[in-house]
Amino acid sequence: MTTSPGNAGIGEGIGEGIGAGAALAAAIEAHAQTIAEQITTRQFADDPTLDKRFGARGRSKCTEDANRHLSYLATAAVASSDKLFVDYVGWAKILLAKLNMPHGDLARNLTLMRIAVTNELGTTHGAAAARIIDAGLGALPALPESRESFLSRGDSHADLARRYLEMLVAGNRKAASTLVHSEVASGVSIHDIYIHIFQRTQYEIGRRWQMNQMTVAEEHYCTAATQMIMSELYPQIFTTSRVGRRLVAACVGGDLHEIGVRMVADFFEMAGWDTYYLGANMPIQGILQAVEANDADVLAISATMTYHVPVAAEVIRAVRSSDGASPQILVGGYPFRVDTDLWRMIGADGCAADADTAVELANSLVARTEHA
């Protein structure tokens, strides 16, 4: 759990790191297609067998992959975080390994990217972009080619989570629902169901997709089924006594991965907060209106993917500069677990790794404000 040292100075220097890297990110994005095509042309020229093996479709896919690398490079630049790009390189290494492609191919592609950005972006921006790429290249050899299952630990909750996920993968949502309700009836708390079954299996679903062990369709089905089963538990969640505090929670614009922040909102409900959950892909103006209309004590925003971080920074800047309510702002999502200082960079009041600590942190921040 991380939080700012106090409320004094909140709003001063918000997003300074974002601003510092914005020009570099803009330059990368403006030249991305040209750079991607240069990378592909050079890679196919260096290895004549690629044309024979993959043809025109392979060239197109190579350019698409290069554009994706550049997108993550730009986000790392705008957030001034080499860690975000290194993490992306690690993700790509695992994915390519499961497609039987050696990490040497990735290293070569990143090296060609380094050459292309240096040539295309000019001295200052080229050097800055190359430095971020060097961080990824330097870390690449030691990065793992696989990820351990989140269900491999031998505790009783892991066994329950395995059974739950097996049912979902088999397309048996009803059996999965019955299992959850049976556990609740036997005395397992909804809190533990959320943490040890729902959250754990969501992490495992993401790992299996990355390892090429689960299709996108299976991933979406399992997530949608879990959301439906979560909703079946609401009659028990919403019976908690109220504490007189209000939360607005949303995913930033472009982020469709809503289940994490929905779990967070449910934990606030269990803690007696009144919550206003906005869901996925929420535009900034809608968030501002909800914060003001509900006089929110806390705004929780989720940025699931690295490229959502700049949008989260925009939300924070908009809330801070508005004439309405001034809530404490919590951020969460995978990028904030990768770089634990990222929340400071974009001007949030704090960041929590999970729903439990989010509630604890929110209570602490609001109490500090009330006694200021």
How is this structure best summarized?
The protein is an alpha/beta fold and 372 residues long. The chain has helices at 16-30, 32-46, 49-78, 82-98, 103-120, 122-139, 156-169, 173-185, 190-210, 216-232, 234-237, 259-270, 284-293, 309-321, 334-338, 342-345, 355-370; strands spanning 2-3, 246-252, 274-282, 298-302, 328-332, 350-351.
Structural class: alpha/beta
Distance between the termini: 21 Å
In N-to-C order, the SSE pattern is EHHHHHHHHHHHEHEHEHEHHEH
Radius of gyration from CA coordinates: 22 Å
Shape: globular
User: Based on DSSP secondary structure assignment, what is the total number of beta strands?
Assistant: 6
As a percent range, the share of strand residues is 5-15%
Low-confidence stretches: 4-17
Question: How would a crystallographer describe the biggest sheet?
Answer: 6 strands, mixed
Number of helices, counting only DSSP H or I runs of 4 residues or more: 17
Q: What is the topology, as strand order, of the major beta sheet? A: 1-6-5-4-2-3
Helix content: 55-70%
What would the average pLDDT be, to the nearest integer? 89
